[in-house]
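Key result, reporting period 2: structure in, sequence out.
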């Protein structure tokens, strides 16, 4: 799981798609994107990387994508943008796997903004009617658009996402406080194309490539537990220290229990009544103060455990995680 220290902007970036103004100068780049499946697949042939900043009004995201052939076709808001090459943002402010945001953009600066009530694995739904009023976006193309006669260098994206919209389902301060951590991931969808009659055409029967910041392990961006961690800080750039959340190991165990229960139910028609049935009774969990407990409640299950800081963390059958 990747992490990133998101520093406070001393001046707001100019949203023109170029990432060349002074606001971005010292902001660190993320690691270069990898295949969505991680080490199971080769590294992408074209580099993708991101910078982030924040202030009282916006969460700023700047992405740079190497691309020898920049193209785009979709111009209608809320089109299924990943049918073009695109850049995608996923945000789960409170780490609960539910009520998270997705924003997609193509080289034409066409936006698809939506909210997921739950991941698709748990029934969704995706709410296309959710929008981000006040969001500012821009695309810069280092080359030409939809012109196969030349070779481009790439394209870049800038976004200014207003905190007052993200606040709606954040269940925590938005804008964040110094040291707050949000779950975030980025994806780049890339299609293989050929040139026919002077136009880019997708090569038939080839799936898209999915290149991401924090690898998912499977071809599925809608596993928020795999997303990276962005820590918002107010210290001068280059001086903050990343703080690993004490619950990370527990969350990994809870997701193990979730997937084990889903598999058990498919095989047997009902939930397991004990962690022994799931072969999870003897798992060592970092920072756990007591062994985990499994309960069946109202035709659902809840797995809980207490951490060394005396907080209690739970997961239920629709993968919602909460900590009190």
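The corresponding designed sequence is given below.
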């Amino acid at each position: 799981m990747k992490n990133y220290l998101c520093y406070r902007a001393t001046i707001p970036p100019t949203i023109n798609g170029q990432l060349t103004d002074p606001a971005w100068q010292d902001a660190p780049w993320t690691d270069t994107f990898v295949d969505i499946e991680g080490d199971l697949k080769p590294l992408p042939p074209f580099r993708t990387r991101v910078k982030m900043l924040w202030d009282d009004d916006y969460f700023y995201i700047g992405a740079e994508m190497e691309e020898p052939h920049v193209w785009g076709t979709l111009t209608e808001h809320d089109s299924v943008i990943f049918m073009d090459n695109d850049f995608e943002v996923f945000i789960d402010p409170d780490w609960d796997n539910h009520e998270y945001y997705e924003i997609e953009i193509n080289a034409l600066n066409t936006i698809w903004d939506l909210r997921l009530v739950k991941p698709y694995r748990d029934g969704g739904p995706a709410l296309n009617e959710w929008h981000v009023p006040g969001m500012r976006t821009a695309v810069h193309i280092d080359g030409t658009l939809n012109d196969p006669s030349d070779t481009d260098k790439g394209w870049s994206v800038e976004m200014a996402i207003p905190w007052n919209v993200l606040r709606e389902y954040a269940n925590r301060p938005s804008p964040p406080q110094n040291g707050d951590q949000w779950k975030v991931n980025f994806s780049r969808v890339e299609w293989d194309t050929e040139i026919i009659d002077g136009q880019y055409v997708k090569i038939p029967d080839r799936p898209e490539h999915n290149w991401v910041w924090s690898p998912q392990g499977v071809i599925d961006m809608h596993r928020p537990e795999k997303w990276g961690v962005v820590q918002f800080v107010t210290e001068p750039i280059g001086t903050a220290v990343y703080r690993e959340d004490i619950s990370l190991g527990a969350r990994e165990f809870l997701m193990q229990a979730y997937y084990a229960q889903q598999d058990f139910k498919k095989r047997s028609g009902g939930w397991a009544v004990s962690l022994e049935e799931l072969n999870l009774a003897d798992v060592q969990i970092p920072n756990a103060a007591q062994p985990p407990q499994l309960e069946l409640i109202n035709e659902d299950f809840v797995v809980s455990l207490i951490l060394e800081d005396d907080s209690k963390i739970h997961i239920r059958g629709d993968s919602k995680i909460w900590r009190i």
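The two ends are 23 Å apart (CA to CA). The chain has two domains: 3-233, 248-323. This case is discussed further under Risks and Mitigation.
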